[in-house]
């Protein structure tokens, strides 16, 4: 699994993180995702194009499939996992900052 905190979900962010993932772990067979417009064209009346997004074309070029979840339960699982990761990350950062403050206070008392 790979995750990154970014201000907003964009094609550029997904391409950058996909490259990072492939360099670190190798090329996966497929990505399982929600139906965000980064992954698939959501407009049935699109005026032109090949029906693929820029991200989908990039993955197609390196032979990685995209599987878009058809159920809201799948999206809920992903969102639940991300919420857990955000909470754990913020708690960890808070604990680290607290420990650093406590160390500074102890060292200032000794001086």
Description of the structure:
With 111 residues, the protein is mainly alpha-helical. 56% of the residues lie in helices and 7% in strands. It contains 3 helices and 2 strands. The chain has helices at residues 11-25, 54-61, 72-110, and strands at residues 30-33, 65-68. A two-stranded parallel sheet has the order 1-2. β1, α2 and β2 (65-68) form a beta-alpha-beta unit. The protein is elongated.
Keywords:
two-stranded parallel ribbon; 3 helices; 111 residues
State the strand order across the main sheet. Answer: 1-2
Please, how many helices? 3
Q: How much helical structure, as a percent, in the residues?
A: 55-70%
- Could you give the order of the helices and strands? HEHEH
Q: Tell me the β content.
A: 5-15%
Low-confidence stretches: none
Tell me the domain tally: 2
Gap from first CA to last CA: 46 Å
- How many strand elements? 2
Q: Measured on Cα atoms, how large is the radius of gyration?
A: 20 Å
State the major sheet: 2 strands, parallel
Characterize the overall form: elongated
Question: Structural class of the secondary elements?
Answer: mainly alpha
């Amino acid at each position: 699994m790979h995750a990154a905190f970014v201000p907003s979900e964009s094609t550029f962010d997904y391409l950058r993180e996909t490259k990072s993932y492939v360099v670190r772990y190798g090329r996966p067979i497929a990505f399982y995702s929600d139906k965000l417009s980064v992954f698939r064209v959501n407009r049935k009346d699109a005026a032109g194009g090949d029906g693929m997004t820029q991200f989908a074309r990039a993955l197609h070029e390196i032979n990685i499939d995209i599987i878009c979840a058809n159920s809201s339960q799948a999206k809920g699982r992903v969102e639940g996992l991300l919420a857990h990761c955000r909470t754990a990350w913020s708690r960890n950062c808070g604990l680290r900052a607290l420990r650093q403050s406590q160390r500074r206070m102890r060292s200032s008392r000794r001086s």
